[in-house]
Amino acid sequence: MIVELRSDTVTRPTAAMREVIASAEVGDDVWREDPTSRRLEDRAAEVLGKEAALFVPSGTMANQIALLLHCRPGDEVICGRGAHVRLYESGAGAAWAGVQFAEVGGTDGLFDERELESAIQPGDYHAPRTRLVALENTHNRGGGRVWPIERLRAVCEKARARGLALHLDGARLWNAAIACGVSEREICAPFDTVSACFSKGLGAPVGSVIAGSRADVDRALRLRKMLGGGMRQVGLLCAAALHALDHHRARLREDHDNAKRLARGLAAIEGVRIDLARVETNIVIAELDRVSAPELCKLAAEQGVRIAPVGPHAVRAVTHLDVDAAGIDRAIAVLGEAMRGAMR
Fold first, then answer.
1. Is residue 9 domain-resident?
2. pLDDT tens, 208-240?
3. How many Cα atoms occupy the beta-carbon half-sphere of 113 within 13 Å?
4. What is the per-residue pLDDT for 342?
5. pLDDT score recorded for residue 343
6. How many domains, the chain?
């Protein structure tokens, strides 16, 4: 049996999800005639507390649409250090929206209103125009860190006071809501636009949304078409996302519990360092002493446990609905054996 922990994007549709996919009512969504996609968009907008939402193939496309909505070429976007929109989207922000990024804060991707203020350009014509603040919650590169709600609000209030637009990269927003005990709507309230993924912790095979005002989502429809995201009988995918949205959010607590179980087990292994206080959701990042990350991943994969290198001496494991507590315990045992073997 394979214990797959490289990402929460590897999940397979459940039997119930396959049933709703098979029975989905569909139409041509480019004509806006797919009833299932419209139901998903309406439901997502309701959950996120926005006027409207638009289904898109990926979180990357949702984020890129947000940049195009809020910015003009030459503008600067302030984001947390290691933000997905800057680091993991193939340079699309520069290629399509023509923006540049200013990273602020610590390695966990969080920052405060003072750090935001210091990064805002002065406004003279020699400097780029600061136009947008993009927060990522949870923060992938930071190990699934959650923005404390009061800190998030303080940063957003500062951005508003300085006339800046706000976008939330909520790829794992669902995890953030569970972890901090507030609704998605409350987290999203300060933001002009929000992106959220169904294909990560919620376990749908494909898809994200971008949500915001009716006017912004109307503009986003045109931008989705320009970026190649117009799809036809997309209700097959939206049925899976709708099922995930309504049935898989509450169970994310299990993934968080399993991540903490994994982190405690790995921290007990010689040569593995984990800051247990920073394991807040479903992502575990471990630093390795004297062992290369690719080597450990290779040794573990040979024993049926898959994790991912995220640096020369750092690995990442992500819990999800396809891995139970027994799988976590097996991963701990295999990784312990692999570490001991690599350190000999």
1. no
2. 999 999 999 999 999 999 999 999 999 999 999
3. 14
4. 85
5. 82
6. 2
Domain holding 332: CATH number?
A: 3.90.1150.10
Residue that terminates a domain, selected from 247, 262, 286:
247
| Segments of the chain with pLDDT less than 50 | none
Residues 119 and 47 occupy one common structural domain: yes
In which domain, by residue range, is 72 found?
15-247
Q: Report pLDDT digits (tens) over 130-157.
A: 999 999 999 999 999 999 999 999 999 9
